[in-house]
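Onboarding guide, step 5: your first structure request.
Type a short instruction followed by the sequence, for example:

Predict the 3D structure of this protein.
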Amino acid sequence: MNELRELTRRTLLKQIGFGVGAAALTALLNEDLFAQQAAFPNFAPKAKRIIYLFMAGAPSQLDLWDPKPVLSQHDGQDCPEEYLKGERFAFIKGVPKLLASPHKFVQAGESGQWISTLLPHTAEIVDDIAVIRSMHTDQFNHAPAQIFMNTGNQLPGRPSMGSWLTYGLGSESRDLPGFVVLISGDSNPDGGKCLWSSGFLPSVYQGVEFRSKGDAVLFVSNPDGVTDRVRREMLDALKELNAMKLKETLDPEIDTRISQYELAYRMQSSVPELMDISKEPASIHEMYGTSPGEKSFANNCLLARRLIERGVRFVQLYHRGWDHHGTGEFEDLTHALPRRCKEVDQASAALVKDLKQRGMLDDTIVIWGGEFGRTPMKEGRGGSQLPGRDHHPRAFSLWMAGGGIKGGVSLGSTDDLGYNVVEDPVSVHDLHATILHLMGIDHTRLTYKYLGRQFRLTDVYGNVVGKLLK
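The system replies with structure tokens like these:
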């Protein structure tokens, strides 16, 4: 009976078969033992899929999205004491100086949204995006903040948003995972693989990392000397052994193992074609700035579009390098920030344009942003004279487009220095609740029983941000 307690109703019905006998057995058992979320979606969804462009390291909202003329007027002056009393910073010591943005802002599009001149391509799509200038979070260090932004909790071990969505809605693709991760750069973000973990959900909902060079997915290709026929015979034999064990133990992870082996076999045919972007028209490569065969954010944006075309539910791109403290030219606002923007600006805008011209933006959510914001004060660590900002959880910006989101709007505002949110605050839990709502899910009903209680992505928090919705 202890083993049965770990099963969901979905798993139980899968093992004992459907029909009157199965229903009768379920009715005889304690209903609480098999509590499962309501059928999803709960209501008609506005969106079917998500592409999340995660800027790991926290891009500066004060240099990209939230212009502050008052901050410019007081550039170089001591930060007012009222902002410092009882405050904790990651690296700032003593009384810091206020720091104006070294970059210019312009109003773009018919909506007249303010945007940095560092993002000229994104300026072309401002009428399609909603900029949230009033985001805030509970975390001010990278790893816990990234984990919080992706899973709704700062500690490792919780399922990621992509895992929750594929658990609730499943995948529309038979030959590809429902949740795919693409990373540009040479290393994972600070939060590591926790950011796309399935946590306590069955591992079939784990994000699968695709690589731009070599085998797209590790261990999917046949080893040297193993033919497709031998591979198929091996998998058939393994499936029989796993099925015998499943019948004996009713362990749902065995069922996951069987399905993942079969998916890996099908991916041997589907993934090479998917990853070959060389066959895309020249106009598409020009739009995105892609170079087939290279590892780049631009290539990953194009791959993201190809993935959702083939039924993948959730695609997450991670791009590192946004941690601009000003301790050197590789992480300051005058040298490093323009480089990062140049790496992502064209492709991010191209993705929105491409989805729109294909008629896919209406039911695809695109999200762009990091894990927290940056301070309106200069960090000045070690006496550095280069402009840089410390971590700031109280206010930051991100943008969303498509899938039922209003375009050409700015939501929320911060004070004159960009330090605190003063209008329409949006928490991480609010963002998650809104995303699930757009996907047709009541965030309070997408739950999973673990350690004796029902867990959800938004925990016990979160409200749908109605002002963002069409």
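Each response can be followed by summary notes, for example: The chain is about 30% helix and 15% strand.
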